[in-house]
Amino acid sequence: MAKKTRIAVFLICDLICFNASYLLAFLINAGASAEALSPAESFEAFFGAYPAGFLILIAIKLIAMYVSGAYKIMFEYSDIRDLRRTALSLVACTLASVTAAALIGIGAALPPPVILLSFIFDIVLVLMFRRLYTKYTAGRREGERPEGEGLRRKFAPQKSLAGRVMVIGANPQAVELIQEMQANKNCGRSPEVIIDDDKRHDGDTLLGIEITARRSEISLRARRQSIDEIIIAKPDASKRQIATLLRESVKTRCRISMLPLARSGEKLPADRPASLADLRKPTIEDLLGRERPRVDHRKIGDELKGRIVLVTGGAGIFGRELCRMIVRYKPRRLIALDTDEDGLAMLSSELEAYYTAETEFRPVIASVRDATIMRRVFSAFRPHLVFHAAELKQIPLAQTNPRETFLTNVLGLKTAADLADEYSAEKFILCSTTRAAAPMNVAAQCKRTAELYIAEKNEKAHTKFTTVRFPNLIEGRGNVLAVFEKQMEQGGPLTLTDENAVRRFIGAEEAAMLTALAAARAAGGEIFELGPGEPIRIRELAEAMIRLDGKIPYEETGIIVTQLRAGERLFDEASDRPPRDTAQAQERIWVTEDRSGVKLPHWSELWRQEPERMDDAAVIEILRLIFPTYKTKTAGATTRGVKVENE
Prior knowledge:
- This protein is of the alpha/beta class.
- It is built from 21 helices and 22 strands.
- The strands form 6 sheets. The protein has an 8-stranded mixed β-sheet with strand order 9-8-7-10-11-12-17-20, with helices on both faces. A 6-stranded mixed β-sheet has the order 3-4-2-1-5-6, sandwiched between helices.
- It is elongated, with a radius of gyration of 35 Å.
- The relative contact order is 0.07.
């Protein structure tokens, strides 16, 4: 119920209760007096004194109740303490009415027996209404849950974590956690303040705890009230809302915990209330706050169901997620190709649950650089769709090993694309990177070269060739997130390559889903851009990860600034801004324009020797021929004290 509505209901209720109390008290006193009045005479005497006496006192009582905060109590969730607080408010309003009666000279109409009896009736009627209101709202809220279970259940003993707690959320789950903390003293947690986004609850109290609707006060309240722990009890919130709350919370020195999110697949069991045992530490995914995109699953299903799909690089982080997603749409056959034997074995084990008579999974150990084995794969399976995710993507390693990077990211791509065209595949999807929009290092330049090649192929072939660009994967094994997590496991310190470095991230599941959607929409020749998310400064990311781990940056875990590594940039550009107010923007996928101005020379001009005999210098010359205006490294940067060559 809305706050204003709740206050109006309680005001009307108290108005009725106070009138009834005075009437009953006056009638009882009149009948018991020495000069007992008949019922008719008693009513006439009461209403004769009502306008100039009782009505004024009732108004004073209502004002005193409001001032004392009795209408700020959220009786949707209440216990004996809230009833006790209401009883104290009734005492205060009775004293205020008696004082007013004496000051304005209406004491003759209000003898002591009437004061005492009216107070007793006030206590009975007002508290009875509050209790009925609580039961009514609890019944509507909990439905099938037995009435009052949240108050009667026994709480499991918790490990002592002495501290003052800030609870974010004013919902049933937050109430259950607060009840457990208040009932189970052994847990050592003491709820002190509640933060909630709903401005209608600002200033209210819940189970005796003040509610504030100002999220900006998280840091201020944590400091003023010496908060030790912040609990985010909003399981139904969106990931973006949780990320916003976490970014405010990590500014404090408090421990942070949260209930599992309903939208994350780890929702709380429906057959029991929330408990302190359900709390978990926030993850970096929670901090980044990436929501699942809205996609047309029927369109993806129409594209994949009953088809033969080949995923190169199928054992990588992105390739595995892409295979998991594709197999749900029941293709006739899914082939995962990679050189990682262990990765393919793990993927095969994961997908066993999806094996049916109409869906076959075939792991293939092979390299996209081996033209002979790739021809055998295409000849044997003749895929309808090819997702090319095989690549070398670690920028520093690619920078110091340009030959290997070129052979995999360019020649491997050329081999797969040529065979897709030769064996009449319907669509070929190149999984690229947003760095290819402005290629300033070997890895990005190789990816851009691959994009240029399939763009040319699309103009001449029957197969539809399309590119999908996306930023860093959150789950990537070699990105800054993985490095920080490893360093934190070792006790720190965390190392930054530059204080001003900025990165964008996307989840592997989201990237896989949007890549499949791009395949369904592909008409050939497009460059699809996946919504890159908000940029985050790496220093802020390091500080946040330390605080999420319950430690204090620079004190308990240090942060050291080193230097940019080979090929690194301070930020990765998105190739284009997303369109506004369109379905594509909501789905976080759109077709972007190629603004690099780079054209691929004729392929024969790139080779002065056999690819297998090329060395690093030959590859650098080829990249300089393709990208004459680009540098392969940020100017003036060094790698661990060694000046970068080919600058």
